[in-house]
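Why do we care about 3D structure at all? Because function follows from shape, and shape follows, mostly, from sequence. That is the central idea of this module. The next example makes it concrete: a single protein chain, its amino acid sequence, and then its structure expressed as tokens.
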Amino acid sequence: MKSLKVTFFLILSLIILPLCAAQDNKLSLDAEIEDSATRQLSINKTALLMGPGEQNRLNAALELLRHTQPQARQILLDTLQLKQNSPARTAVCRALVTSRTAITQKDDFQKPLLDIIRTSSGLDAQTAAEATLIFDYSEIAEQLKEMTIADAQNRQQKLNAIYAISLRPVNKEAVATIVLLLNEEDKAVADAAKLALPYWIPPGMDAHAILRYLKRKSQSEIIRDWIDFQEKEVRRLQQETIQWQKLYLTAINNEYEAAEDAKKVTLLLLRLQSDQVVVKLWALEKFEKVSGTVVVGDDFTPALLALISDSNRQVRLQTARILAKMSDTNPAAKLLEQLKIEQYEDVQLTIFEALGEACYFAFSPGSSIKLSDDIRTETLTWAEKFIDEDELPPAKAGAEVIRKLLEPNGLKKEQINKHLKLVAERYNRANQEADATLRAELLHIMARICEGIHRDAAAALFNAEFIKGLSDSENASVRLAAVEGLINIDKADALEIFKTKNLFADESASIRFAIIELARQAGNVEDIEWLSLAILGNGEGELAWQAVREILQRQPVKTVVEWIGKLKGILSDDRNRNLLEIAAKKAEAENDPAMSKIVKDALRPMSLQLFLKTADYEKAANLIANFLRQDDLNADSILIKDIQNHLTSPEVNITQKTLLLEKLSAIKIEKTIPRPEWIGQLQLLQQIVKPAPEPKPPVAPKPEPKTETKTQPK
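And the structure:
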């Protein structure tokens, strides 16, 4: 039996002892937590009462206010009674204002706050009055009224109470209490009451008139009047602020414009570091205009880069726009850092575009900037996010950054293919969503990718989409992007496709211009047929002529001469002459005398007509002299007829005609190759210009001599 008892107690101890140990551990943990909480309270109390700065004391008061332990509340209440520690009391009052909607058991603070208003002055009384806003006015109205009718000697108490009441500008009862003090014998109190009247009270009323006015007004009308006044006051202050800003900006702008370039950089650097947003924006705007022409110092770039993380949205936006044009400052790391935390979509998009440009510059051949591959990889990851957006700007920006970052070498084949597919997939999605504008933008970016080193890989993915895009009858921008893409893949094949689809007659001038330009580069004589029609058209006639000219430049002389005949009536004289000059050079290069004679015979009259038209008589005479070395000139020659027409034209003055004849008469004829017909024609030409002899003036008849008659004497 005894052994049974021993066994029982042994088992019981095995059960109870662990439980006791666990309970002891729990009590120990609770004690530890309690000690920790007590230590934290002590730390906060010390910071509140003796903290080195206003913000530290306020933070301590806020922590104590959030604390659930009664001791924390008591510390705050005790602090409000410390007349000798104004900074601590002020911190508690401001903490109450900051946390006014989240305070539990507000009534604890009513008496100590009202006591401060009764007995204190200055900042203590002011912050205590502001802290009473945690209560409804009805909860403290009676106590504040009592302060206003207190002993006449207690002026400060009345003034404090008036201030506390004035913080309720839309409460009729509060306003009425202030109105009753307008007639106080104490002028200081009466003046304070007058100043405390809310602005929505019409000016010029005495106390009785104001009370009648209040009686007529409903609470909702009072609130509306107060809001109207506040809005007007805000607008007034805004206008004043704008005026002062204009005056200041004018002053610093005048100083800037009058300064030398070196001084301008110093002024811009100073303004970039200003605390005023408008000044920083002014400096950014000025810098953007001169950034390409003014040399800045080493300390300028850090100041500019710092603004990408400025607290103002517009400053960050403007800085990102500038940095997009200043990739040589190596802004990628700063841009990526801000991109990760930027909250505004428009700013984030601009930063992303600047980051893409910075990476493109850094990884381009010949760049001196060394940028981590991780930054390019992260930028591509951001590009994947942007291109997936539904809106056009981010989707376009994502695709454009992908294009830029694929161009430089250094990416793995898998990365390249992945991002090319992303662009193709986003384009297909835009097709399904019938987003014509985004579709055109993406197809244009795809076309540009086909210009780069990944043309073959891109062509395999994009070629079919370009072909489909040519048939988009509703969107010329899509057709144009498709044209550009196919040209970038293979010019000759593209031209054949365009001719098959008659795109040289497309309604879009941009598409017609693109195809004519392609023909200029890669066309052949077969393309002159449709190009000749374009020459006669409006707009692209000059480009079509240049294309025809370039094509014929690539052909033998026989083909050129053949097409000169076919284009007769289509080309102007100047253009015909230009082709004949090309043919003449080709005939000489190909050593073809027969063709050379044909060309020169056709070219001479056209050249002579040009020289005569421009009064370049020296060249006209040289052309005739060169012809005379080969043959004589008779009356049937077109060259003689052209000279005759010029000399008989009323539009050519006598001085010019005389000069032409002088140049022609100066042509030397070799004795061994006489040119009698030319000599005869030259004499006839001189007769055309030779003035007719002036008629002789008529000779007056000589008067007959007078005869004297003698008078016979009678």
